[in-house]
Amino acid sequence: MASYKLRIKEFSSILSAAKVDISRLKALCFNGIPDDGKYRALCWRILLNYLPLVREEWPSELQKQRNLYNHFIEEMIITPGLSYKSESPSEKIEDHPLNPNPESKWKTYFKDNEVLLQIDKDVRRLCPDISFFQQPTDYPCIQIVENTEVESFRERVKQTALSSANVIRSRAGITNISLSKKRAHDEYQYLPQGQEAHWEVVERILFLYAKLNPGQSYVQGMNEIIGPIYYTFASDLNPEWSRYAEADCFFCFTNLMSEIRDFFIKSLDESSSGIGSMMNRLMNMLNHYDYDVWFRLQELELMPQYYSFRWITLLLSQEFPLPDVIRVWDSLFSDHKRFDFLINVCCAMLLLIRDRLMEGDFPTNMKLLQNFPDMDIHKILAKAVELQR
Question: What is the predicted pLDDT for the residue at 102?
Fold first, then answer.
């Protein structure tokens, strides 16, 4: 208890200073941020390069960024939504849904709908073990929920789902899945008008990210990256922070994606920053620390892409319960080499189940690695730190 109080005091001291000592903060956060609802969201905003280190710059920087986010909503969601609902007759003649002109706004609309449908399907299943994302947010987007002239995402998704198949975009290609009208109607239920579920907020963030990054757009798995960040920000006990969870999450997610975006781009798989290079580093580390396990996986032809592709790309967000993922991310975000420590954690996971891997055959080990066993996350992190040293 005394140690915990001392850590709280250290966090308070660092975060209340005129200038945040980033080295001290990283060292402190690396060992875990207290789960008291006061510090983690603030620390992550700093560690993800959203907040400047000088405290007196926070108000102006936050105001600027939050205003910018509202501008994105106005320009990319509200204004287009209004134009599709209230076109003049002359506009309808000049531009229509079958217009082959690549500059047609209808072409953009249909392309956006395809992205929106995939995002919608993915965010609905965020963290299914908890009810948080299905619950209403206390801070819905007033610009949208109170504007009856705007074609909302709810309307766009419902209309498109009733008339077309869902499209799954994955690294393996594109697969069409048809939905019957009855099933689509059952699936697309929402909170009452004027309310938004947390997953709807995440949907809006990801849609804006896709619009602002057309070269990359939205890729399946980004929903798993943004989920823990939004949950952490929206759960902040201080309403002055949680009120702006959406805007702040957008910029923190954007900053994080700028660091790991190469994981999501297939053409960069074999580059030094691509997922192929990261998996090779993991195998080299395993070979160094436990040749027998490495050789056993090679012998079974159990390739790292069968399991570690997901581990690395999604920052382990699907391997552990949400509280454990958040604890792991405390260390990942505060590691001075950032994602070097991710490889240490993955290697630690393999070493801690070495006996089972040595005994198992291909299907047994495949199942084990794709459904990592329940284990104390602190034991895994301690092993990762041991490897780091």
Answer: 57
